[in-house]
């Protein structure tokens, strides 16, 4: 009890040093948990998770070809890869032993008909040139809809498409913008006309109303020159409904030639690389490129995490070095000259070095352990939301083995500081300290004596001067 009381009394007398030690320990511990978690998450995201992700692959016209797109020139449709082309390349891939699943989206422009109108473009032209003001897109599966080139959307009214119903001839989704413009509600019907024949119409029923969850690409939103290029004018249905309208003709011409986009679904990155290599050997024309929307989306998603982790390794090293030096400095002030005098006095009056060592060890423990615990708790519970905030929503939690490594490392540092406190006490020589004090006292006495001698001389001189003046007067 005596040792604990003395330790606490010493800490209270030096409360700023104690507070600084708590803060340093908390910062170093929290920084360790946060930094290592961010580094580990980034290494996983760019390593094993990146390689093992399921990958989609598409074959689309090259950027150079897409730059020639003219929505009023139906000859552009010759750049579409049709059913026969996809079949040829799929056979090549299968021959190479590559397994895949697939889904698809298929699109043609359709004309507005009756009272229902599309959202106008900024420079619209006749439907005879453009094929229509709407784009009708059919999805083979839900995954095909999720990988929609126009962007991700959500159904805000009504129901999603039913991909298992093989008899549905009319159910579609329309955008909220089109629904609002035409006062359409779920369950209402409207008509569209074929791109090559304004008199041939199809009646459609609004199954649901959607909204996009991301921003439109340039030229695909309100800035679209042609109405059909505004993604809000897209009509979505299942592939079955699309085909029943007679829009999937393999021999279609002009705008009736569908834009077929088959997505190959591959098991991992290794298989994707084999897929790309196989198509290259199959002499895929330079007018087409193979890409993966899922890889692009994944890399975009982890980019903020990479930016966060990039400086983390150097920052952690700096944190550990500076933190260790500051903790040593804070602990070292416990053995300043004034404190050494206090300890030496305790030794001289009979307090054992063991008890003094226990006191200093308790001082180290009381000031470092709370900071360590605070930093560990803050790191354990605060790292996940902080990384999510700084890394664009990427979720990463401290691993249990990291928490335990931090616990043992922190306790190890505390033990080292306590051992250093013992060493300082055992190495202290009171005689040396008091010898220094005696030397200082002797020096002070010598200075006092010199001052006293100078004063006596001054008095003798004053007396002689007074006697001389008296003789002169006589």
TrEMBL record:
Signal peptide: none annotated. One of its GO terms (cellular component) is plasma membrane. The keyword Transmembrane applies. It is found in: Cell membrane. It comes from the Bacteria. Residues 316-425 form the ABC3 transporter permease C-terminal domain. The chain crosses the membrane at residues 317-337, 358-382, 402-423. Keywords: Cell membrane, Membrane, Transmembrane, Transmembrane helix. Residues 446-455 have a biased composition (Low complexity). It is a multi-pass membrane protein. It holds the Pfam family FtsX. Residues 446-474 are annotated as: Disordered. One of its GO terms (molecular function) is transmembrane transporter activity. Residues 456-466 have a biased composition (Basic and acidic residues). The keyword Membrane applies. This is ABC transporter permease. It comes from Bifidobacterium leontopitheci. The lineage of its organism: Bacteria, Bacillati, Actinomycetota, Actinomycetes, Bifidobacteriales.
């Amino acid at each position: 009890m005596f040792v604990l009381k003395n330790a606490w009394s010493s800490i209270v007398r030096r409360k700023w040093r104690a507070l600084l030690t708590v803060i340093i320990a908390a910062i170093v511990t929290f920084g360790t948990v946060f930094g290592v978690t961010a580094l580990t998450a980034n290494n996983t995201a760019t390593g094993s998770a990146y390689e093992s992700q399921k990958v989609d692959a598409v074959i689309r016209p090259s950027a150079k070809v897409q730059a020639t797109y003219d929505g009023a020139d139906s000859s552009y449709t010759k750049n579409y890869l049709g059913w026969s082309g996809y079949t040829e390349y799929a056979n090549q891939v299968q021959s190479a032993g590559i397994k895949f699943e697939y889904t698809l989206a298929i699109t043609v422009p359709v004309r507005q008909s009756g009272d229902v109108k599309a959202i106008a473009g900024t420079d619209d032209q006749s439907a005879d040139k453009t094929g229509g003001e709407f784009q009708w897109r059919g999805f083979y599966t839900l995954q095909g809809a999720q990988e929609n080139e126009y962007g991700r959307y959500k159904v805000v009214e009504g129901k999603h498409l039913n991909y298992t119903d093989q008899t549905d001839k009319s159910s579609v989704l329309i955008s909220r913008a089109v629904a609002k413009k035409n006062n359409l509600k779920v369950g209402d019907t409207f008509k569209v006309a074929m791109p090559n024949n304004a008199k041939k119409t199809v009646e459609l029923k609004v199954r649901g109303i959607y909204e996009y969850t991301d921003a439109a690409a340039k030229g695909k939103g309100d800035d679209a020159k042609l109405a059909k290029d505004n993604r809000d004018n897209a009509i979505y249905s299942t592939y079955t409904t699309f085909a029943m309208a007679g829009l999937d003709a393999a021999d279609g011409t002009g705008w009736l030639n569908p834009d077929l986009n088959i997505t190959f679904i591959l098991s991992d990155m290794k298989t994707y690389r084999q897929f790309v290599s196989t198509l290259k050997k199959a002499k895929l024309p330079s007018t087409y490129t193979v890409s993966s929307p899922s890889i692009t989306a994944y890399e975009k998603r982890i980019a903020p995490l990479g930016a966060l982790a990039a400086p983390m390794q150097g920052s952690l090293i700096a944190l550990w070095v500076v933190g260790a030096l500051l903790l040593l400095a804070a602990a070292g002030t416990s053995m300043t000259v004034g404190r050494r005098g206090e300890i030496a006095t305790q030794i001289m009056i009979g307090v054992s070095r063991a008890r003094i060592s226990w006191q200093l060890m308790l001082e180290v423990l009381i000031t470092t352990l709370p900071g360590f615990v605070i930093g560990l708790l803050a790191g354990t519970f605060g790292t996940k939301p902080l990384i999510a905030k700084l890394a664009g929503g990427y979720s990463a939690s401290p691993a249990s083995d990291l928490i335990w490594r931090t616990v043992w490392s922190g306790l190890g540092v505390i033990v080292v500081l306590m051992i250093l406190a013992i060493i300082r006490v055992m190495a202290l020589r009171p005689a040396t300290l008091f010898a220094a004090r005696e030397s200082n006292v002797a020096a002070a006495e010598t200075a006092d004596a010199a001052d006293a001698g100078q004063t006596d001389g001054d008095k003798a001189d004053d007396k002689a001067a007074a006697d001389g003046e008296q003789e002169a007067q006589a």
